[in-house]
C-alpha cells in the first residue's frame, strides 16, 4: 500500500485519505439491482465504477471483500411503503413463481455485467435468504425504542430518532424538509407520521411473498436488507458503502438510521455515490421512449440507436467521465468512444512489437506511468488517467513509426501501462472472438515474416519483396528497421 488513495466521502462532503479499519483489508458493500427486469444503462455505471474501485484497491495491495446484494423481496412500487412488491407483481403478470422471476433476471444481470468486464463480487447475498437476520434487526430497533408496531407492521419512528441523533446526516435534508415533502397517501393511517418507514410489513392475503415473524406473516422493508446483510458479512463497522446517487435518500439515509438505532453507530466510514446517466440530455425512462436495456445496446435493437455498441465500448465510454460527474449517452458520443477505444487497444498490441534500442531510459515514460496511478488514486479520476494513457499511446505510435527510440526499460513500463493499468485496473481489453482472431492473424503474420527473413538471408530479394507487397495488399504495413521488421494492421 505504498500509494495513498483519496476518496470523496459523501457523508463529510470532502475528499479524504482512505484509512481502512483493519490494515491491509477493505470491506465494501454496494447496493445491487432489484431483479424484476433486464439490466439497463442505469445498472452499467455503478457496476463498472465499483468494479474499477475493487480492481484498484487490490492492485494497491489490499485484500477486498466486496459484497453486492440482490434485492428479491420488499421493494415496493413507491418509497412510501405502499403498492405491490415489484417482483411479486412481475410474477403475477407472467404467471410465474417469484423466485423464477428472481432467478431469470439475476442470471441476465450477471451475464450483462460479465460482458461489461465487471468481475463478480466476493459475496452476492439475496434479501430473501436473510429474513432471520432482518427480523432480529427489527427486534433490536424495537427494543431500543426507535420503532413501533401497528396493525401487524413495524415502522421506524423517524421523529424519535431525530431527537437523539440526526436524520438527514447523509443527504443534508432536515426532518422539516422531509415532512414538507411527504404527502399522506390512502392506507397510511397505521403510521404515526407519513415520513416513518417500514421495517416489517404485514402481508395482505393476496401477497404471495411472506414469512412468519413475531408481529405478523409479512415481509421486510426495502431499506432493512442492506443494514442486515452488510453487518452479517462485513461487521457492524466497515469501510466503504457505495451506490447510485438516487439511493442517497431515502435508502441510504434509512440505512444509517437503522444502523445507529440498532447498534449505536452508523457503521460505515466512507460513503460513495456515482452520478446518474441521461440520454441525449433527458432522464432515462420508459415514458420518454429512451429506456435502453444493455442487451438492446449491445445488439443495436433499440429504435434510438444508430448501431450496436460493444460492451467494451460502453465500459470505455463510462470511464471517460468521472464517476461523480454527469454522463450523457448519445450515438455521437458512443461512436467517438468506439474510435478512441480502438486507438488504445491498437497501441496495446503495438507496444509488444517495439524493438528496444540501446538508448538511455526516457524519464517521461515513467512519469506517465506514475501520473496514471496518481489520477486513479485521486478519487478514481478515470478521465484524467485515460488522458495520460493517451500520452503513452503517442509514445508507442512514435516508436512504431521509427521517430522515437526506446530502451528496454521504457518498453517494459509502457507494457505495464497497457496490461497492468488499462487492462488490469480499468478492465479495458479486447473482446472475445476479436481477440482470438487477432492472435491467429498475429501468428500467421509472424510465420510469413519469418519466411521473408529467410529469403533476405538467402539474398532472394524478389521473394522478400513479393512477400512484403502481398502483406501490404492485405492491409498489413511492413517497416524494415536496423533493429528488425515491424508490422501493424492498417
Radius of gyration, CA atoms, in whole angstroms:
27 Å
Distance between the termini: 41 Å
Strand order of the largest sheet: 4-3-9-10
Number of helices: 16
Regions with little confidence, pLDDT below 50 for 5+ residues: 183-187
Average residue pLDDT:
91
Rough outline: elongated
Number of strands: 15
Structural class category = alpha/beta
Say what oligomer this is: single chain
Helix amount, in percent?
40-55%
Strand content: 5-15%
Main β-sheet description: 4 strands, parallel
Question: In words, what does this structure look like?
Answer:
This protein is of the alpha/beta class and 490 residues long. Helix content is 46%, strand content 14%. Strands 4-3-9-10 form a 4-stranded parallel sheet, sandwiched between helices. A hairpin with a 2-residue loop joins strand 11 and strand 12. Helix 2 packs across helix 3, helix 12 runs parallel beside helix 14 and helix 13 runs antiparallel to helix 14. The longest helix has 26 residues. The radius of gyration is 27 Å and the shape is elongated. It starts with 5 loop residues before the first strand and ends with a strand. About 1% of the residues have low confidence.
Short description:
With 490 residues, the chain is an alpha/beta fold. 46% of the residues lie in helices and 14% in strands. The strands form five sheets. The chain has a four-stranded parallel beta sheet with strand order 4-3-9-10, sandwiched between helices. A four-stranded antiparallel beta sheet has the order 5-6-7-8, covered by helices on one side. A three-stranded mixed beta sheet has the order 12-11-13.
Amino acid at each position: 500500500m505504498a500509494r495513498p488513495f483519496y476518496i470523496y466521502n459523501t457523508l463529510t462532503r470532502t475528499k479524504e485519505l482512505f484509512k481502512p479499519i483493519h490494515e491491509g483489508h477493505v470491506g465494501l458493500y454496494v447496493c445491487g439491482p432489484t431483479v424484476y427486469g433486464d439490466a439497463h444503462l442505469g445498472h452499467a455505471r455503478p457496476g463498472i465504477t465499483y468494479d474499477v474501485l475493487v480492481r484498484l484497491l487490490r492492485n494497491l495491495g489490499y485484500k477486498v471483500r466486496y459484497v453486492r446484494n440482490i434485492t428479491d423481496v420488499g421493494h415496493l412500487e413507491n418509497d412510501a411503503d405502499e403498492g405491490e412488491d415489484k417482483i411479486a407483481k412481475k410474477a403475477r403478470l407472467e404467471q410465474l413463481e417469484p423466485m423464477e422471476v428472481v432467478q431469470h433476471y439475476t442470471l441476465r444481470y450477471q451475464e450483462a455485467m460479465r460482458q461489461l468486464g465487471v468481475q463478480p463480487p466476493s459475496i452476492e447475498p439475496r434479501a430473501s435468504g436473510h429474513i432471520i437476520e432482518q427480523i432480529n434487526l427489527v427486534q433490536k430497533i424495537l427494543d431500543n425504542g426507535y420503532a413501533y408496531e401497528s396493525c401487524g407492521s413495524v415502522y421506524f419512528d423517524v421523529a424519535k430518532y431525530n431527537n437523539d441523533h440526526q436524520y438527514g446526516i447523509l443527504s443534508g435534508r432536515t426532518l422539516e424538509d422531509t415532512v414538507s415533502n411527504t404527502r399522506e397517501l390512502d392506507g397510511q393511517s397505521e403510521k404515526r407520521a407519513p415520513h416513518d418507514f417500514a421495517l416489517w410489513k404485514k402481508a395482505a392475503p393476496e401477497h404471495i411473498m411472506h414469512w412468519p415473524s413475531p408481529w405478523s406473516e409479512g415481509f421486510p422493508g426495502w431499506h432493512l436488507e442492506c443494514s442486515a446483510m452488510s453487518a452479517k458479512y462485513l461487521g457492524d463497522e466497515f469501510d466503504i458503502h457505495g451506490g447510485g446517487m438516487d439511493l442517497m435518500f431515502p435508502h441510504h439515509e434509512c440505512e444509517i438510521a437503522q444502523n445507529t438505532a440498532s447498534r449505536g453507530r452508523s457503521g460505515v466510514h466512507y460513503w460513495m455515490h456515482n452520478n446518474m446517466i441521461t440520454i441525449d440530455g433527458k432522464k432515462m425512462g420508459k415514458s420518454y421512449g429512451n429506456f435502453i436495456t444493455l442487451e438492446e445496446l449491445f445488439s443495436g435493437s433499440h429504435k434510438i440507436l444508430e448501431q450496436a455498441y460493444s460492451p467494451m465500448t460502453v465500459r470505455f465510454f463510462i470511464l471517460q467521465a468521472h464517476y461523480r460527474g454527469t454522463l450523457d449517452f448519445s450515438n455521437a458520443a458512443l461512436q467517438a468512444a468506439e474510435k478512441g477505444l480502438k486507438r488504445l487497444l491498437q497501441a496495446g498490441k503495438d507496444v509488444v512489437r517495439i524493438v528496444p534500442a540501446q538508448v538511455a531510459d526516457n524519464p517521461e515514460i515513467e512519469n506517465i506511468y506514475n501520473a496514471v496511478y496518481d489520477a486513479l488514486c485521486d478519487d478514481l479520476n478515470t478521465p484524467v488517467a485515460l488522458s495520460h494513457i493517451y500520452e503513452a499511446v503517442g509514445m508507442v505510435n512514435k516508436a512504431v513509426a521509427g521517430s522515437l527510440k526506446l530502451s528496454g526499460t521504457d518498453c517494459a513500463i509502457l507494457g505495464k501501462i497497457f496490461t497492468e493499468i488499462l487492462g488490469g485496473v480499468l478492465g479495458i481489453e479486447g473482446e472475445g472472438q476479436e481477440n482470438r482472431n487477432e492472435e491467429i492473424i498475429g501468428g500467421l503474420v509472424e510465420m510469413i515474416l519469418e519466411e521473408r527473413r529467410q529469403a533476405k538471408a538467402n539474398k532472394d530479394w524478389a521473394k522478400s519483396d513479393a512477400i512484403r507487397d502481398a502483406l501490404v495488399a492485405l492491409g498489413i504495413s511492413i517497416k524494415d528497421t536496423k533493429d528488425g521488421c515491424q508490422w501493424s494492421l492498417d
